[in-house]
Design brief:
Keywords: Hydrolase, Magnesium, Manganese, Metal-binding. The protein has one domain: Deoxyribonuclease I, Chain A (4-Layer Sandwich), CATH 3.60.10. Strand 7, helix 3 and strand 8 form a beta-alpha-beta unit. The strands form 3 sheets. The protein has a 6-stranded mixed sheet. A 6-stranded mixed sheet has the order 5-6-7-8-12-9. It is about 25% helix and about 25% strand. The chain starts with a strand and ends with a strand. By secondary structure, the protein is α+β, with helices and mostly antiparallel strands. It is globular and about 45 Å long.
């Protein structure tokens, strides 16, 4: 069972790239972030033409998450929960579209787009930490159900120094603050397995390259897209990877897809 995460950075703008990736790599489950589409604008029909079913949680112009499953291969999806009940950083804003959870053929899938937190310090960083606390609480509830579970998406956290091309360049960023790292470390201390780190213990694997300053061409990237596995899934981990070449295509997202393959 191949399960992937991909911050698509606008599903309408990147739809040709998304369709290419799905056709070429054929994940059983594909979790998308930053779809930047209201619910009624989601291109479900074009995705169905590729043999995928989908559920999505959209928002106008920004945020938004979706879970796609390969229905052609017999995968089915049932929504479990959307949202974590954390209001956005602006007064009266309400909850942003950042979390979607589903059951797929006996595996719990939690797709997330964690707040960026910049500029820090400030309300956006406070919101990021509150959101991570709520996520940890939800992960504890999933854990208590003792189901095979995968929590994945754009965490907007650089966990270790060797997860970035330059510590100095990122030292003031919310992605790398001690509070962000500590909150992420608590997920792992609770027993969840960072799949990509497990197979790449020395780091040096990037999942994001900014559009600015020739970051892609100079390989100035960092790792913020993560796949966390419950013990039941960690025991089944066969392989993990980053589809880096897709970042180099025309009008690509600034993220590359990340995936795991679990044994049956």
């Amino acid at each position: 069972m191949k399960i992937a995460t991909f911050n698509i950075n606008g599903i309408k703008a990147r739809l040709p790239r998304l369709k290419e990736w799905l056709a070429e790599t054929r994940p059983a489950v594909a979790c998308l972030q930053e779809i930047k589409s209201q619910d009624e604008g989601f291109p479900a029909g074009e995705i169905e033409e590729l043999g995928y079913s989908a559920i999505w949680h959209g928002q106008k112009a920004f945020n938004g998450v979706a879970i796609l499953v390969d229905s052609q291969a017999g995968y089915t999806i049932t929504e479990v929960q959307r949202g974590l009940g954390v209001d956005g950083p602006k007064d009266g804003e309400g909850e942003q579209a950042r979390y979607l959870e589903a059951e797929v053929n006996g595996v719990r899938i939690a797709c997330l787009y964690l707040p960026n937190g910049n500029p820090q310090p400030g309300p956006k960083f406070t919101y990021k930490l509150a959101w991570m606390e709520a996520l940890r609480a939800r992960m504890a509830q999933i854990w208590a159900e003792e189901v095979p579970a995968v929590v994945l998406g754009d965490f907007n956290v650089i966990p270790e120094d060797d997860d970035t091309w330059s510590v100095k360049a990122m030292q003031d960023d919310a992605l790398m603050q001690p509070e962000s790292r500590d909150a992420y470390a608590r997920f792992l201390n609770d027993g969840w397995t960072d799949a990509l780190r497990t197979h790449n213990p020395r780091g040096g694997v990037w999942t994001y390259w900014d559009y600015q300053a020739g970051a892609w061409q100079r390989d100035h990237g960092f790792r913020i897209d993560h796949i966390l596995l419950s013990p039941e899934c960690a025991d089944r981990l066969e392989s993990v990877g980053v589809d880096k070449a897709h970042r180099g295509r025309e009008k690509a997202s600034d993220h590359a897809p990340v995936w795991v393959r679990l044994k049956a």
